[in-house]
Design goal:
This protein is of the alpha+beta class and 206 residues long. The protein is 26% helix and 26% strand. The strands form 4 sheets. The protein has a 6-stranded antiparallel beta sheet, with no helix packed on it. Strands 4-11 form a two-stranded antiparallel ribbon. It has a two-stranded antiparallel sheet with strand order 5-10. Helix 1 (8-16) packs across helix 2 and helix 1 (8-16) crosses helix 3 (37-51).
Length: 206
């Protein structure tokens, strides 16, 4: 598809679904750079995509499903004798990690350390504490889901904007950035496990 035949309204939904190739994604992002109002339109599509997994209605299982299944297979239903099952373990209503209990581990980028607080395999999201030395630049990456950052200490620069302690930053799916800190910093982050660190992405960003 040539630039002359491209339409933002046609490609924006596909961008939100991550169905565009690299050239088309860059074209969409260029349109947003020229007309920032388009970012709001794209955000609407991204919000809709994020809500899609939760729109399917729950269908209760029929009480006689097992009987009908055995009938269709021509099998006799044999009721098993009841067995004792222990009560499921009680789940605590509160879980906490004290500051001195954080398990800091070195990141692949020297000068960055992370402490994992929570990983949700169903939503593919994880929550971490991150701290970095001054002068460190985080690798270029593309978000597969919403990324949320809450600054605790120091300063973090994202796309020319500097954020300090108490600031909150939200990046939407498919956005690309490479945060930098000129000072030591620490922040809480919630991000997708599947964020894209592909080398071709790095080349297109730089």
């Amino acid at each position: 598809m040539t630039n002359n035949h491209r339409c933002f309204c046609d490609l924006a939904p596909l961008y939100a679904l991550d169905l565009l190739d690299l050239e088309e994604r860059l074209w969409v992002e260029a349109q947003i750079a020229e007309c920032p109002d388009l970012a709001e339109e794209l955000a609407g599509y991204q919000s809709a995509v994020g809500a899609m997994p939760y729109t399917a209605p729950l269908v209760p299982m029929a009480a006689d499903l097992k009987d009908r299944l055995f009938d269709s297979l021509g099998l006799d239903l044999v009721e098993s004798s009841p067995t004792f099952e222990p009560d499921p373990p009680l789940h605590p209503e509160l879980f906490s990690i004290r500051a001195d209990e954080l398990e800091w581990k070195a990141h692949r980028v020297e000068g960055i350390e992370c402490a994992v607080l929570f990983v949700d395999p169903l939503s593919r999201m994880r929550t971490l504490m991150v701290r970095a030395r001054g002068g460190i630049k985080y690798p270029v990456h593309q978000h597969r889901g919403v990324e949320e950052i809450y600054m605790l200490e120091g300063e973090l620069e994202i796309e020319g904007n500097i954020y300090a302690a108490g600031d909150y930053i939200r990046s939407y799916p498919n956005s690309i950035h490479a945060p930098f800190t000129a000072t030591n910093c620490m922040f809480l982050i919630r991000a997708c496990i599947d964020d894209n660190y592909d080398e071709n992405l790095v080349a297109s960003f730089t």
